[in-house]
Amino acid sequence: MTKYKKSIIYICKVWSVSTDLKSLNSLSLLLPLSISSTGLSTRIKRFTLLRSPLGNKAAKDQFERLEYRSYFSIKSRNPAKILAFIDTLRYLNGVKFKIVLQEKSSKT
């Protein structure tokens, strides 16, 4: 009878969105050197506002908003390292995060 030693690998997947490219680039400075972030496509939202809704209908202002997105994942056997990294993410201003944590057990 052989015994299997289970080791659990924790995977943290992070999607980030920001309207400020500088704050999103500061996120890449927090990442360890072994982890690289993947830049996703930029979303452009354009909208038009009427200057005077009752009078001149031809007077319009057009605006656009850019959303920069990125993705990275962290794998670790120690859950404390992942939780410490997630704790530092909340100090970034103007960056929204979606975080998914997974456990993966492997037999060695």
Task: Provide the descriptors you would attach to this structure in a database record.
single chain, 108 residues, alpha+beta, Alpha-Beta Plaits, 19% helix, elongated
Question: How would you sum up this structure, described in words?
Answer:
By secondary structure, the chain is an alpha+beta fold. It has a single domain, classed as Alpha-Beta Plaits, CATH 3.30.70. 19% of the residues lie in helices and 49% in strands. It is built from two helices and five strands, in the order E-H-E-E-E-H-E. It starts with 5 loop residues before the first strand and ends with a strand. The model has no long low-confidence stretch (mean pLDDT 82).
Q: Can you give the mean pLDDT?
A: 82
- Major beta sheet summary: 5 strands, antiparallel
- Helix and strand content put the structural class at alpha+beta
Shape category: elongated
Question: Whole-Å distance between the termini?
Answer: 15 Å
Which architecture name does CATH use? 2-Layer Sandwich
Q: The CATH topology is what?
A: Alpha-Beta Plaits
How many helix segments?
2
